[in-house]
Request: fold
Amino acid sequence: MTLEADVLAAYPADLEIPAGLVADKLAVSNAEVPRVLVVLDDDPTGTQSVADLPVLTRWEVQDLAWAFAHIAQSAAKPAVYVLTNTRSLDPAEAAARNEEVVRNALAAAADAGIRVGFVSRSDSTLRGHFPLEPDVIAATVAEVSGEKTDGVVLVPAFPDAGRLTIGGIHYMRGTGDAKGTLVPVSDTEFAKDASFGFSTSVMADYVAEKSQGRFPADSVIVLDLNIIRAGASAQDPAISAKAIADAIEPATDSTPIVADIVSENDFRALALGLEEAERRGKKLLYRVGPPFVRGRIGQEVRTALTAEEAYAGNTPSEAGGLIVVGSHVGLTTRQLNVLTAEHRSARIIEIDVEKLLGAEADAKAHLDQTVDAVVEALRAGDVIVHTSRLLIKTDDPAESLRIARTVSAAVVDVVNRTLKTFPPRFVIAKGGITSSDVAAHGLEIRHAIVRGPMLPGIVSLWEPVDGPAKGIPYIVFAGNVGDDESLAQVTRKLSTKF
Reply:
């Protein structure tokens, strides 16, 4: 068993860095021609670490123009999230979607007279289309602008959710009786993912494995905590910024660069170093977990929203709330069990996956019955809609994705028909693919503002600014974050029936 304290003992202590220092450095860089980070989010849960930023579920030029205008007019931090949902797509579809977003972002930026940088936001447990997505972004930028990418910076860490990178190894913090220990991510259920499994937690080896040797492990630049915290003894962030930029200097032709991260201060130190490297002329893309953007733009950590803040500016419906659970990871099932046990007044309705995958007429009839039951139950109180907990798996990744899409389409149908019949007080969607499809198609959200987290550092609240769900708080809840009580805690905060 690996103790976190023992692993960290080999490295310098934390270097205290205020978010304002990063924001000030960014403001200087942006003084002449502003730069906005366009975050291609492969599922909507990447917004859980930020606040008051625009998010798009569509990415036509006019959508990105709306986001750039919102940032300029509201003095929001310079980042916009584009919900690509590519983790639910096959590689060819994911590549095409990344290219389309980048082309449209570059076109909208040219019209607005701003610069853009690109962030490929993916999973803190290393699942997703890598290196495909940063490859496509780099190739598209080069084709459109002639600008070649020197380095792809990999930062999967998500300390709020217990995911840390130390010594170039990616870990999960142990929980319960294992608290205080570190578990290599390759030893967890996430490494066995049917579509995106992997065999190693050593990030340089992970890069070599996923790139099929195109990037050998020894070609990967590792920014370990000795570099990230180089200024710790003098409490001088400038020392760390120089050390990081110096380490990045050899990067060329999309060299992978892995960063150790344990704390928010490490994100800020990295942000200062990346800013210095880019000031020197390095062209970088980012492949990251959720909190990276918060650190990179110098945003303070937002405290969890209160119930009053969740409904601020809107008159909540008298209907019950709708909690939709699609994720099948073990943590989600435990959270669902706690919620159903504690929220005894809620109506529990199951979508039977076996019926969905059966005859078309049977599937349609099952969905019709489900919608009728949900609408009726919302008139009295909260409703928990969950897919059956038996996960139907195959050894074929493409077939696994097809099944996942079929199930998600059914969930979307139930939510959309419910919304247009009897709008709920709030909607919580549990699971990455589930929350993406519910946002874009179930609630028909096109533009929204991320207001902040419902729990510290995790679980995002979106405020839809257009469409039939305008004014209904929408909670994006990843399948793999929180503890067993978290889903119940968020529901209790929003509900008048709990």
